[in-house]
Amino acid sequence: MKGQCLCTRVVFELTPPIPDIYQCHCSLCRQVSGAASNAAMIISAAQFGWIRGQQDIRQFATDSGFKSHFCAHCGSPLPNLTRDDTAYWIPAGLLRESDGINVAAHLYVDSKAQWDQIATQAECFAEMPDPDTLNQLLNSSRQK
Ligand SMILES: [Zn+2]
Ligand SMILES: [Zn+2]
Protein backbone atom coordinates (compact mmCIF):
# COMPACT_ATOMS: atom_id res chain seq x y z
CA MET A 1 0.00 0.00 0.00
CA LYS A 2 1.49 3.33 -1.08
CA GLY A 3 1.33 6.75 0.54
CA GLN A 4 2.51 10.16 -0.61
CA CYS A 5 2.64 13.82 0.38
CA LEU A 6 0.46 16.44 -1.29
CA CYS A 7 3.10 17.45 -3.87
CA THR A 8 4.05 13.77 -4.43
CA ARG A 9 7.80 14.36 -3.99
CA VAL A 10 7.80 12.02 -0.99
CA VAL A 11 6.45 8.49 -1.56
CA PHE A 12 6.57 5.42 0.70
CA GLU A 13 5.14 1.94 0.82
CA LEU A 14 3.65 -0.28 3.53
CA THR A 15 3.65 -4.07 3.44
CA PRO A 16 0.49 -5.80 4.79
CA PRO A 17 -0.94 -6.66 7.23
CA ILE A 18 -2.01 -3.01 7.64
CA PRO A 19 -2.96 -2.04 11.21
CA ASP A 20 -5.95 0.09 12.19
CA ILE A 21 -5.83 3.82 12.89
CA TYR A 22 -5.97 5.87 16.08
CA GLN A 23 -6.93 9.50 16.30
CA CYS A 24 -5.30 11.72 18.92
CA HIS A 25 -7.25 14.78 20.04
CA CYS A 26 -4.49 16.41 22.17
CA SER A 27 -3.53 20.05 21.62
CA LEU A 28 -0.21 19.19 19.95
CA CYS A 29 -1.85 16.88 17.39
CA ARG A 30 -4.50 19.51 16.73
CA GLN A 31 -1.89 22.16 16.03
CA VAL A 32 0.34 20.01 13.85
CA SER A 33 -2.65 18.82 11.78
CA GLY A 34 -4.73 22.00 11.86
CA ALA A 35 -7.74 19.78 12.51
CA ALA A 36 -9.77 18.25 15.36
CA SER A 37 -7.30 15.38 15.67
CA ASN A 38 -4.65 13.55 13.75
CA ALA A 39 -5.25 10.11 12.23
CA ALA A 40 -2.31 7.75 12.28
CA MET A 41 -1.10 4.18 12.46
CA ILE A 42 1.98 2.51 13.90
CA ILE A 43 3.58 -0.12 11.68
CA SER A 44 6.70 -2.22 12.27
CA ALA A 45 9.87 -0.87 10.66
CA ALA A 46 10.17 -4.10 8.64
CA GLN A 47 6.88 -3.29 6.90
CA PHE A 48 7.92 0.24 5.89
CA GLY A 49 10.01 1.48 2.97
CA TRP A 50 10.75 4.86 1.40
CA ILE A 51 10.28 4.96 -2.38
CA ARG A 52 11.55 8.49 -2.92
CA GLY A 53 11.87 12.00 -1.49
CA GLN A 54 13.69 11.46 1.80
CA GLN A 55 15.87 14.50 1.03
CA ASP A 56 12.74 16.68 1.12
CA ILE A 57 11.88 15.77 4.73
CA ARG A 58 12.22 18.48 7.38
CA GLN A 59 11.67 18.04 11.08
CA PHE A 60 10.45 19.88 14.12
CA ALA A 61 10.58 18.78 17.76
CA THR A 62 9.44 20.30 21.03
CA ASP A 63 11.56 20.19 24.22
CA SER A 64 9.15 17.57 25.56
CA GLY A 65 9.98 15.20 22.69
CA PHE A 66 6.92 15.64 20.46
CA LYS A 67 8.18 15.54 16.90
CA SER A 68 6.85 16.26 13.47
CA HIS A 69 8.38 15.41 10.12
CA PHE A 70 6.99 17.17 7.09
CA CYS A 71 7.57 17.81 3.39
CA ALA A 72 9.69 20.92 2.76
CA HIS A 73 7.65 21.74 -0.36
CA CYS A 74 4.01 21.09 0.53
CA GLY A 75 3.96 20.80 4.34
CA SER A 76 2.27 17.38 4.51
CA PRO A 77 3.09 15.51 7.73
CA LEU A 78 5.32 12.51 6.98
CA PRO A 79 6.13 9.13 8.53
CA ASN A 80 8.85 9.01 11.16
CA LEU A 81 10.53 6.41 13.34
CA THR A 82 9.14 5.91 16.83
CA ARG A 83 11.44 6.58 19.80
CA ASP A 84 12.72 3.01 20.07
CA ASP A 85 13.41 2.76 16.29
CA THR A 86 11.30 -0.39 15.87
CA ALA A 87 8.26 1.12 14.17
CA TYR A 88 7.09 3.96 11.97
CA TRP A 89 4.36 6.45 12.75
CA ILE A 90 2.25 6.89 9.61
CA PRO A 91 -0.18 9.78 8.99
CA ALA A 92 -3.20 7.84 7.69
CA GLY A 93 -4.39 10.57 5.32
CA LEU A 94 -1.31 10.07 3.13
CA LEU A 95 -2.33 6.55 2.13
CA ARG A 96 -3.73 6.13 -1.37
CA GLU A 97 -6.13 3.39 -0.28
CA SER A 98 -8.38 3.07 2.73
CA ASP A 99 -10.13 -0.26 2.18
CA GLY A 100 -10.44 -2.36 5.30
CA ILE A 101 -8.85 0.21 7.62
CA ASN A 102 -10.84 1.28 10.66
CA VAL A 103 -10.39 3.78 13.46
CA ALA A 104 -9.79 1.59 16.51
CA ALA A 105 -9.09 4.19 19.21
CA HIS A 106 -9.48 7.86 20.12
CA LEU A 107 -6.78 9.25 22.43
CA TYR A 108 -6.71 12.30 24.73
CA VAL A 109 -10.46 12.70 24.43
CA ASP A 110 -10.43 14.71 27.69
CA SER A 111 -8.46 17.49 26.00
CA LYS A 112 -10.38 17.66 22.74
CA ALA A 113 -11.61 21.00 21.35
CA GLN A 114 -15.10 22.03 22.46
CA TRP A 115 -16.29 21.95 18.85
CA ASP A 116 -14.94 18.45 18.24
CA GLN A 117 -17.87 15.99 18.06
CA ILE A 118 -16.48 12.47 18.14
CA ALA A 119 -18.95 10.16 16.38
CA THR A 120 -17.47 6.71 16.74
CA GLN A 121 -17.78 3.04 17.58
CA ALA A 122 -14.11 3.04 18.50
CA GLU A 123 -12.78 2.94 22.02
CA CYS A 124 -12.15 6.34 23.67
CA PHE A 125 -9.39 7.05 26.18
CA ALA A 126 -9.21 10.14 28.40
CA GLU A 127 -5.45 10.31 27.81
CA MET A 128 -2.95 7.74 26.49
CA PRO A 129 -3.64 4.05 27.30
CA ASP A 130 -0.66 1.85 28.13
CA PRO A 131 1.29 0.83 24.98
CA ASP A 132 0.26 -2.84 25.11
CA THR A 133 -3.44 -2.03 25.29
CA LEU A 134 -3.16 0.35 22.36
CA ASN A 135 -1.01 -2.02 20.33
CA GLN A 136 -3.47 -4.86 20.83
CA LEU A 137 -6.40 -2.68 19.85
CA LEU A 138 -4.75 -1.40 16.66
CA ASN A 139 -3.77 -4.90 15.57
CA SER A 140 -6.88 -6.84 16.56
CA SER A 141 -8.19 -6.97 12.97
CA ARG A 142 -4.88 -7.71 11.25
CA GLN A 143 -6.05 -10.27 8.74
CA LYS A 144 -5.61 -7.71 5.97
ZN1 LIG B 1 5.32 17.28 -0.58
ZN1 LIG C 1 -1.74 13.88 20.34
Please explain how this structure is put together.
With 144 residues, the chain is mainly beta. It has one domain: Metal Binding Protein, Guanine Nucleotide Exchange Factor, Chain A (Beta Complex), CATH 2.170.150. The chain is 10% helix and 33% strand. It is built from two helices and twelve strands; from the N terminus they run E-E-E-H-E-E-E-E-E-E-E-E-E-H. The protein has a three-stranded antiparallel sheet with strand order 1-2-5, with no helix packed on it. Strands 3-11-12 form a three-stranded parallel sheet, covered by helices on one side. Strands 4-10-9 form a three-stranded antiparallel sheet, with no helix packed on it. Strand 1 and strand 2 form a beta hairpin. The model has no long low-confidence stretch (mean pLDDT 94). The site of one zinc ion has 9 residues, from loops.
Write the layout of secondary structure elements.
Elements: E1 2-4, E2 11-14, E3 21-24, H1 27-33, E4 40-44, E5 48-52, E6 57-61, E7 67-71, E8 77-78, E9 80-81, E10 87-91, E11 103-107, E12 123-124, H2 131-138
Parallel strand pairs: 3-11, 11-12
Antiparallel strand pairs: 1-2, 2-5, 4-10, 6-7, 7-8, 9-10
